[in-house]
Design goal:
By secondary structure, the chain is of the alpha/beta class. The chain has helices at residues 3-12, 18-29, 43-52, 114-118, 126-142, 164-175, 195-204, 219-225, 234-247, 266-279, 304-316, and strands at residues 58-65, 71-78, 83-89, 95-99, 103-105, 120-123, 148-154, 187-191, 209-213, 252-258, 285-291, 320-324. The chain binds iron/sulfur cluster (SF4).
């Protein structure tokens, strides 16, 4: 919902200031999907808002649900016809987590990522970003799925730090007590390693979690599969983290997607251990190993045995490490699988 437009409309109608809070409560807390259902405001105002303002800035194209019912992927159509994908996951029973997008497509072209293959289409506005959370709140309510909303992760389509102004505004809306009122520690922003953006992020939001999609710990290899490494290489990431840990005791998450015969060998374990040890503060680094989810293309996922060996190797070097359970690959809603065909739009 466009908050500034709502404020203007309320002024136009000469409404008292407390009306705004009543509407916020109905929309953000109670997840009402229509102004006509807000019983705390007059009928006249309900009809007026319904005519002049949208609660969601997109329409639903479809929602796919995984066989186990723990992953839902929505394809949403924006007002200019562009398509966006967003995912709702239940990593634990009665707990839901929204994986939201910050851009339509992505300019960074990581070789193993479906979004990267689509190219960049456009940035999402702050309203389009936070409304994905609102969409899932309404969905949980309508489907009576139960459980509570625990986490928001910026790990969908796009690189958040290449759309920083809108991502920053969206974070402020998510943590605003009158709006979503999410705890800062329940939000994570994931970057492919845009060092300039990481610096601004930790300055502005010191309590929100930072995750770095590293995936390679060798500059030549990382540059080959992740072109962003040519802008910000491993040395720059190391310098940033070293400096960050002198001031902050917040944990940073390192994402590592395991690709068969590409980055899952003993040498890769050694490279990753060396890189992390060279940063120091190992107790503040946590590696999330991610099973690759195949999209049509050139990569395969590492076997269970290799994943276990990788995890064991890292732990042996004193590195905190867990393997993230893959969810939603049967609906192409898993990590690296978000893509919509926007070329014809
Ligand atoms: S992995 Fe992230 S940064 Fe890389 S292309 Fe995909 S969306 Fe962009």
């Amino acid at each position: 919902m466009d908050i500034q437009k709502l404020e203007k409309l309320l002024i136009e109608k000469n409404e008292k200031s407390f009306r705004k809070k009543q509407i916020y409560k109905a929309v953000f807390e109670e997840a009402k999907s229509s102004f006509l259902d807000i019983s705390t405001i007059s009928k006249d105002l309900r009809v007026f808002l319904d005519k002049n303002l949208e609660i969601l800035p997109f329409s639903k194209v479809r929602v796919l649900t995984s066989k186990d019912g723990r992953a839902h992927k929505a394809v949403l159509k924006l007002s200019d016809g562009k398509l966006l994908e967003t995912v709702l996951l239940s990593p634990k029973e009665d707990t839901w987590s929204a994986c939201i997008s910050s851009q339509v497509g992505c300019s960074l072209g990581c070789a193993f990522c479906a979004t990267g293959k689509c190219g960049f289409v456009r940035d999402l506005s702050s309203d389009e970003i936070v409304s994905q959370v609102l969409f899932w709140k309404q969905y949980l309510k309508q489907k009576e799925l139960g459980g509570s909303f625990s986490n928001i992760v910026y790990m969908g389509m796009g690189e958040p730090f290449l759309n920083w102004k809108n991502v920053k505004d969206s974070l402020n809306i998510l943590i605003d007590e009158d709006l979503f009122d999410f705890g800062r520690r329940n939000i994570s922003v994931s970057t492919s390693g845009i060092v300039k953006g990481m610096q601004k992020f930790v300055d502005d939001f010191p309590q929100i979690n930072l995750a770095i999609s590293l995936h390679f710990a060798n500059n030549t290899k990382r540059g080959e599969y992740m072109p962003v490494n040519r802008m910000y290489d491993l040395d720059q990431i190391r310098i940033f983290l070293k400096k960050y840990f002198t001031k902050s005791k917040r944990k940073v998450f390192i994402e590592y997607i395991l690709l068969k015969d590409v980055n899952d060998s003993e040498v890769d374990i050694r490279d990753l251990s060396r890189f992390l040890r060279s940063i120091g503060s190992l107790q503040l680094l946590h590696v999330n190993l991610i099973r690759y989810n195949s999209i049509e293309g050139d990569f395969e996922s590492s076997s269970e045995k290799i994943v276990r060996r990788f995890q064991y190797g890292l732990r042996k070097s004193g590195i905190h490490c867990t393997t993230r359970k893959s969810m939603g690959d049967d609906i192409h809603g898993a990590c690296g699988q978000l893509a919509t065909d926007n070329k014809k739009r």
